[in-house]
Amino acid sequence: MPTLNPILSTFRFPDQPSAADVVNYVDEKSLIRILKKYGEEKQAQLVAHAIIDSRYAFGRITSTAQLADIVATAFPSPYVIDKIGRKAHVATRTFQALRIFVNNELNEVNNGLEICHHLLSVGGRCVVLSFHSLEDRIAKRHFHGIDMNERLNQSLTDKLRGPEVMKYSQDFIEKITEKCWQPMSRKISTPSQEEVANNPRSRSAKMRVAVKLK
């Protein structure tokens, strides 16, 4: 867990909120949304409530250690066991959510893949190494031609099923059926047990590789 002091004062741009701004000024409903969306925190409501209660009772949250302690009050124990049997602090997902939100990381991943497609030559390979499912889903959508605003596992048949297909132009139908990328494998690559044992930080890594078609 980070133990820096003062709290997460980093921000991407001077006119954007810092993590300290988020935990000290954002309302409870917005905090819940941030924790759920960017941290995939199942206890988002309890964590957000604990943060709000602490603000009212003790004032500003000024350090990462203080925030970690506050988050821990929302759980039976401050530690959980991760995939390889190591202890992980329960505030890990909260810090992930704050980092992704403040740095606008998911949009950066999406923009990076758009730029990669623009710059890469036909036949070139794009490799995406992600460390949590939010990033991996974006890569999957790009490589499998799934629009960012549509349901993730919607098939082409689903897209063109029913009377609504009549409202689509031929150009639109051709656009959604043509592929820009060809994944090199149907499955993602993940580290072996041996690699995880030698490099525990690799435990959540996922790799996707695709070839540019057009």
Automatic annotation (TrEMBL):
GO molecular function: rRNA (cytosine-N4-)-methyltransferase activity
Pfam families: Methyltransf_5
Region of interest called Disordered, as start-end residue ranges on this chain: 191-214
Domain of life per record: Eukaryota
Biological process terms in GO annotation: rRNA base methylation
Regions of compositional bias (Polar residues) in chain numbering: 191-202
Keywords linked to the UniProt accession: Methyltransferase, S-adenosyl-L-methionine, Transferase
Comp. bias intervals (Basic residues): 203-214
Family: Belongs to the methyltransferase superfamily. RsmH family.
Name this protein carries in UniProt: Uncharacterized protein
Organism of origin: Capitella teleta (Polychaete worm)
